[in-house]
Amino acid sequence: MTATWTDAPASRAASHPSLRRQAARWGPLLPLIVTVLLLAAPIQAELAGSASSVSPADIASGVLVAFCVGRALRSRLRPLTPTAVVVLGIPAVGFAVATVTAADPVASLPGFVRYLQVFVLVPVAVVLLIRDARDFRVIMGCLVALALVQGAMGVYQYATGTGASYMGEDIRAVGTFGPTDVMGMATVVAYGLLAAVALALCTPRDAPRWLRPCALAAGAALVVPLALSFSRGAWIATVVAAVAMVLLAGWRQALRALTVVTAAAVVLVGGFGVGSEMISQRLTSITDVTEAPDQSVNDRYTMWAAAASMWRERPATGVGLKGFPAHRDGHASIGLSSGSDTAGAGQAFQKQPLLSPHNMYLLVLSEQGLIGVTAFVGSWAAVLVGAVRRLVLARKRRRAAADCGLAAVGLMTWQTVDFLYADIGGPSTVLAGVVLGLAAWWALARQDEAIAA
Predict the structure, then answer these.
(1) What are phi and psi of 239, to 5 degrees?
(2) Is residue 244 a contact partner of residue 208, using CB atoms and an 8 Å limit?
(3) What 3-state class would DSSP assign to 44?
(4) DSSP per-residue letters across 169-213
(5) pLDDT, tens digit, for every residue of 45-83?
(6) DSSP string, 350-400
(7) Which residues on adjacent β-strands are paired with residue 347?
(8) Strand 169-172 vs strand 164-166: parallel, antiparallel, or unpaired?
(9) What is the DSSP letter of 271?
(10) 10 Å Cβ neighbour count for 164?
(11) Angle, CA 275 vertex, CA 269 and CA 276 arms, to 5°
């Protein structure tokens, strides 16, 4: 009895340092984890698809940024490298110039805050919080988990006819994002799919044996909700990113992994007929846009032309942040419709106004001019080139963190291509900042941190 009472406090005392070490190790990453996983929560109808409303993930991202600022001021720990400061900070110059030179700077101020949040503050916070490859893989796991939750809901919506309206049926998979943000679920699922593929192609040497088959299974499963999103832009971006990852991962492992994913996708989509006819029609429409485009494609071309016209009117600084809607009608042709029809997924029919050109580069060009688009595109190009360069270096030196580099390149490539068909807006937008931060950490962090095991 004496030994029992003596050993118990000693055991508890020994456990406390371990708990403190675990809290010190993973505690700082918690705000970032919460920011990502909050997008699995149901989103109120008035928030879905709205560029001006504040979602729970946006609030969490604000807490994330505040936490990083407080931590940096308190401990002066891990400041950004000079290169990272320039690359991540230069877009803010374009945002500020476009805001100050706008016809109504006060109206442009919310746009300045939003752009600063997504493209500067959140990426910088991610770079500061991630310390090594283990932290990076935790966020990759969060992206996969988020994608599986949203994807499962999307498949359920298709199977039960409770999704967004598509060709007269409520079958479009949109997850919790609703019919006014049809790209939300597609974006989340694509992120998770690419993260899973990266883990399958370049599985860490010290990873458990179950990680690769689980990553393959997750990637194959996520193909289904991505297909059922009926998002052509997300499909194209995913294919381009996957091909880039294949070329950078090495043919032997890549072909083996992608064969499994493709076979599973063929069985699920083709063998069981999961939306096969409508998916086939949607794929065909990609090549028919120049011959017999539907109204949505006509609207997109019209808004692209309007954005280019705005830029020609004010080539240096653009019409100002949040200025596209106000100037749209003065530059668009009469072929532009009054809005897109949205319904389903628990929401009544409504007309969603066309407030952007659905092309991020043209949106930046029209609202920020040459100054803004040069800073924006230059920053993203520097991150992508740096990520590819460091991945090649890591593979040559057989570093264990190549999976992180492959994920960074794949996610950044996807976002870069997707911005040809989409722009920011809706609750999922905050994830674009997280993805940019992940890629920037890999590309711009000190070399011993990024490519170490």
Answers:
(1) -65, -45
(2) no
(3) coil
(4) EEEE--GGG-GGGHHHHHHHHHHHHHHHHHHHHS--TTS-TTHHH
(5) 555 545 456 788 899 999 999 998 888 888 766 678 889
(6) EEEP--S-S-HHHHHHHHHHHHHHHHHHHHHHHHHHHHHHHHHHHHHTT-T
(7) 344
(8) antiparallel
(9) I
(10) 28
(11) 60
Q: Name the strand (E) or helix (H) holding 166.
A: strand 164-166
Of 135, 112, 128, which is closest to residue 73 (Cα–Cα)?
128
Rounded Cα gap, residues 163 and 172, in angstroms: 5
Average pLDDT rounded to a whole number, residues 164-176 = 82
Can you tell me which residue has the tokens 């490298």?
A: 81
Its pTM surpasses 0.85:
yes
Q: Count CB-CB contacts under 10 A for residue 297.
A: 16
For 199, half-sphere exposure in the C-beta direction (CA atoms, 13 angstrom radius) is: 31
Q: Which residue has the tokens 């149901």?
A: 42
Bridge partners, residue 410, by sequence: none
CA atoms of 7 and 5, how far apart (whole Å): 6
Structure confidence at residue 335 (pLDDT): 61
Phi-psi region for residue 370, left (φ > 0), alpha (ψ -120 to 50) or beta?
alpha
- Residue 265 neighbours by CB under 8 Å, 6+ apart: 220, 223, 224, 227
Please list, in sequence order, all residues whose beta carbon lies within 8 angstroms of the beta carbon of residue 4, skipping any fewer than 6 positions away. Answer: none
Amino acid at 77: L
| Token digits of residue 108 | 């442009």
Q: In this predicted model, what pLDDT tens digit does every residue of 398-438 receive, in sequence order?
A: 666 888 999 999 999 999 999 998 888 888 899 999 999 99
81: left (phi > 0), else alpha (psi -120 to 50), else beta? beta
CB 202 within 8 A of CB 212: no
Rounded Cα distance between 97 and 161, Å, is 47
What are 157's two structure tokens? 């919506």
If you ran DSSP here, which 8-state letter would residue 291 be given?
T
Query: What size, in residues, is the chain?
Result: 453
What gap in Å lies between CA 28 and CA 26, rounded to an integer?
A: 6
Place of tokens 């009926």: 230
Q: What is the CA radius of gyration of the chain?
A: 23
Structure tokens at 101: 């030179």
